[in-house]
């Protein structure tokens, strides 16, 4: 082993936060940072932990900063809040609409031996207003999985409000748990393109949504093992989105609510108790005067997402199909391909997944960066995965062949950061040994006298056989 020189390295390990925001939303970033090396903790503060500063910037403009203390070793997590007061003479609404790339950098560290791991990038999208508002009264596992899936498949800002005390008209932001006035919730509902009412229907009578509505009632349900499947007659608008679902492999719903019959509604899914009896509608669609409305009458569908695999894909397909139909123009499901991760460390390929209908097929994509423009082809495999190897840069991508109705566009970033830049202490030590004195094994083929014995035995046998007259 070669001797390793003493080192000290402070680094930013990861950045996590909301990926899509509406103008005026507070941005909360969770930043993981740490230090390594024998001289860790000998930063500018000269204290046990050393001091540093986490700085968040956008296109070279500093947005916020926070003083932090570096650990002696390992990784710690801190939160940086970008509230309206964090912007002198500005507000989060000043962030440009569309995709932006924030840089989170660790500054003020003396003696840092590796500067390439001092910053990470975070890609987010800002929209003029939230397109989807989820009202949960009360919140439960159903709404929790629904909110998480909505943020993934809808690809639009999703704002969730919860009422932990039904009837008290006390709403809270599901992300921060901060109290929200009923008037603020009503304004968000009035400006949303899609409102989801999950829980007690009596709680939502005070709101007047102007866009599409998805109703998920949580009362008056009949418990049992209800197996969901498409109706045997008729064709619903969700048939295409749910075409690849293997219904027999899905866990049953735990309950079903009685949906009132209506000749103007279209039944998209039905359920049968223990796979027997008369099927009951559990997902219905209707449209009146241009306003679209959907109703889900089944409980326990979150178990599809919880199980993952084919069941998780079925849950995502159901939510994506409903959002696509309710928003009419398809907020995100019309895209054929999506990046798996918006930030990629240096040296790793940028991964993409096929999100469109039908079999995956190659797509020509245009990538624009500060250094110029390049055109590549995403070659998807049978599993719907493709990869591109790109140098460190921020790229704005778009489908070069014009497919997808112009919705296939966004930002991916290849960072300078890499886990390999973070030095680590040696775990192996030099060993004092005596190789000349150790026992060594010798194979039988290496003992020459065994060949002499074998030849002598064969010669004696030949002489004896000749003497006895044997062939």
Description:
The chain is mainly beta and 471 residues long. It folds into 3 domains: 9-126, Sandwich (Immunoglobulin-like); 132-326, Class I glutamine amidotransferase (GATase) domain (Rossmann fold, 3-Layer(aba) Sandwich), CATH 3.40.50.880; 337-414, Immunoglobulin-like (Sandwich), CATH 2.60.40. It has 5 helices and 28 strands. It has helices spanning 141-153, 182-191, 302-307, 309-326, 448-467; strands at 9-16, 20-22, 27-36, 51-58, 61-69, 74-82, 98-107, 119-127, 132-137, 158-162, 171-173, 179-180, 194-199, 212-217, 221-229, 253-257, 266-273, 280-288, 291-296, 298-299, 337-339, 343-344, 350-354, 363-369, 372-378, 385-388, 393-399, 409-414. The strands form 5 sheets. The protein has a 12-stranded mixed beta sheet. A 5-stranded mixed beta sheet has the order 2-8-7-4-5, with no helix packed on it. A hairpin with a 6-residue loop joins strand 17 (266-273) and strand 18. The protein is extended. The termini are far apart. Residues 40-48 and 85-93 have low confidence and may be disordered.
């Amino acid at each position: 082993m070669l001797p390793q020189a003493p080192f000290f390295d402070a680094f930013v390990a990861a950045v996590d936060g909301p990926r899509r925001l509406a103008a005026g939303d507070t941005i909360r970033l969770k930043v993981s940072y740490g230090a390594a090396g024998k001289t860790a903790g000998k930063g500018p503060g000269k204290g046990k932990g050393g001091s540093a500063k986490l700085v968040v910037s956008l296109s070279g403009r500093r947005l916020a900063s926070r003083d932090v203390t570096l650990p002696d070793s390992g990784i710690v997590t801190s939160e940086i809040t970008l509230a309206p007061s964090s912007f002198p003479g500005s507000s989060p609404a000043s962030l440009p609409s569309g995709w932006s790339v924030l840089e989170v950098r660790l500054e003020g560290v003396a003696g840092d031996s590796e500067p390439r791991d001092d910053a990470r990038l975070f890609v987010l999208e800002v929209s003029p207003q939230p397109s989807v508002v989820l009202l949960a009264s009360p919140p439960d596992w159903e709404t929790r999985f629904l909110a998480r899936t909505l943020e993934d498949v809808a690809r639009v800002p999703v704002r969730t409000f919860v009422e932990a005390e039904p009837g008290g008209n006390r709403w809270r932001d599901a992300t921060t748990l901060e109290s929200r006035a009923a008037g603020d919730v009503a304004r968000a509902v009035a400006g949303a393109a899609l409102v989801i009412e999950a829980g007690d229907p009596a709680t939502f009578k005070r709101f007047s949504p102007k866009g599409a509505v998805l109703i998920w009632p949580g009362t008056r349900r009949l418990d049992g093992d209800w197996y969901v499947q498409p109706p045997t007659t008729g064709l619903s608008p969700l048939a295409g989105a749910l075409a690849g679902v293997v219904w027999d492999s899905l866990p049953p719903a735990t309950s079903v609510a009685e949906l009132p019959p209506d000749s103007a509604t279209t039944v998209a899914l039905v359920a049968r108790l223990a796979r027997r009896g008369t099927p009951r509608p559990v997902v219905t669609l209707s449209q009146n005067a241009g306003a679209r409305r959907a109703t889900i009458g089944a409980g326990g569908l979150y178990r599809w997402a919880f199980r993952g695999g084919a069941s998780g894909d079925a849950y995502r397909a159901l939510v994506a199909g409903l959002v696509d139909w309710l928003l009419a123009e398809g907020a995100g499901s019309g895209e054929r391909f999506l990046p798996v991760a918006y930030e990629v460390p240096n040296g790793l390929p940028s991964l993409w997944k096929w999100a469109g209908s039908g079999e995956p097929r190659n797509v020509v994509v245009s990538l624009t960066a500060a250094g110029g423009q390049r055109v590549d082809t995403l070659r998807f495999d049978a599993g719907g995965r493709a990869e591109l190897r790109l140098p460190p840069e921020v790229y704005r991508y778009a489908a070069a062949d014009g497919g997808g109705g112009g919705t296939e566009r966004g930002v991916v970033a290849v960072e300078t950061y890499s886990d390999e830049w973070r030095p680590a202490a040696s775990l192996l030590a030099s060993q004092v040994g005596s190789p000349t004195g150790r026992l060594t094994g010798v194979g039988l083929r290496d003992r020459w006298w065994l060949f002499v014995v074998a030849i002598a035995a064969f010669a004696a046998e030949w002489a004896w056989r000749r003497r006895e007259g044997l062939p």
